[in-house]
Amino acid sequence: LTAGNKIFHLGPCRVSLSITEIRAGFNAIKASIQARDPIKTLSILSHPYSLHKVKASDRCCIALHLFDFYVDKVFKHCKAEDSYLNRKISSIANSFLSARRKLEQCHQQNQCPCGQESDEKLEQVLVNYEGLNVTSAAIKSLGELDILLDWM
Amino acid sequence: SGELYCSLPNPRNVRFESVNMKNVLRWSAPEGTGDGVLYKVKYSVYGVGKWIRKPECRNINRTWCDLSSETSDYEEQYYASVKAFLNGMCSNWTETTRFNPLTDTKIDPPMVSVSSTEKSISILLTAPEKWKRSPEGKSISLLQVYPGLQYNVSVLNKKTKKRWFFSISNNTLVVPWLEPETAYCVSAQIHVTTPLLHSGFSNEQCIATLKDQTTK
Amino acid sequence: EDVLLPAPQNISILSTNMKHFLTWSPLTVQKETVRYSVEFQGEYEREYANESWIPICECSLVTSTVCNITEDISATVAYKLRVRAYIGVRRSEWGTLKGFFSPITTSLTPPLMKVIADGYHLLVKLEDMGPAFQFCVVYWKKGQESRMQQKVVKEVSSVVHLDTMEAGAAYCVKAQTYVEAINRSSSFSQTQCVRTQGDRSMWL
Lengths: 152, 216, 204
Hints:
Chain A has 152 residues and is mainly alpha-helical. In chain A, 59% of the residues lie in helices and 7% in strands. The longest helix of chain A is centred in the middle third of the chain and has 26 residues, at 83-108. The mean pLDDT of chain A is 88. By secondary structure, chain C is an all-beta fold.
């Protein structure tokens, strides 16, 4: 089995991200985190429409917005009683930081255009998030990490 | 209809078993129940508000239900649930964990076909197809679903018992400069890095290089 | 609560090939068993989680003075690490690693490699160093150093096929590891050359 950076084509932005550590960390906690999310009728990232419906040109901006969303809002409210979960969440959160830094480079090189659609999509994510109490929203968002990774 | 008194034990180990995105819901009968138990099944798309009954899996006595058609969009994620009935009693609905067809499916090995000349063998690999509703349906190779798909190819010289490995992205491989009249056995595995998935190795396909015509 | 114990000293990191170990000097107290606990703090914890520390349970109240921190130090950010000593209910202040540690600074050693000539085929057997590693294998026909070829090997399940060789020619091979997560390579291994003669490799 091999780990692997991958070149992500997010609209005009070409960025090499090592998502493997994030996926490995998520796979280790997926069952446990998703089991703590009883609300099956709402998705933070996919409601009302899937990330896959987003225009190609907006992909980089939405990815950057979503990385900010996870770093600024989600991880800090995912404190678990279980030490193993906390360590894995820390691993994911720190990996998000270094991935976000690379995405920001695209932003600084003007390869990360933010159109109306990306603003609307992020607005919708925040509305979905604020529609729940903060812990439920954070756990649900963490449980949807594969939706973000699969989309990227 | 009003729910019956639900004191029957629940179906056990309710889960999706998926191969090449043929997604089958499977479960075990409730503890301590013999024959005669019937089941019904429902499923839901994660993030969408309603459960949907599966008519073909209503009042069935088998312990599986093919939900491939209902879960064929691999950009979505799903739940499914089963309820058991026996002698006027019923169980609670028992759910799966969240099912992600893209990451939770198993991949079959590739199909391997080989041909030979006096001093070389040619290997053609075919990735399995994604499940489709009917044989006439549009074929989608897993290569299209997983763009980073690669093949690991093993070539065994039956005479020297030495095995070589090749890692290739395209689906053809020619191994030149081999010994004439020698049997070689080939097997191959699929490997995807994002998400991390790999198939088992295929069954070995053996072929012999031809007799060297120049050494009359 | 009286803090009598001195904080652990000489705290340092040993990191080779993406395996990271925290070590410190033992505290010696006559007829007492000293135990230690280790915690880490990533950049995320410093900047977004009130500088919180996370315990490593495999290294909680242990008598050893070495802790494998590889699984927790998985992102390419700056980490802080600290150790505390315990004797019964008595404990020391935290001893903190000077500065930060990031996996980017791990030392990478050249891979163990064995070159094989099997008939007209040039093959290489590489040491499995874990999923984070790939190998850049460079090979050339002896005497034609200007026409080196390169192959990236990601799977090291067994003997990897490099290329076919001209009869009687000698070929040389060297390899280095590459870790994509930190975008760094090791130095090259020793060069190994082989020449084909029927079915036996001939080392040169």
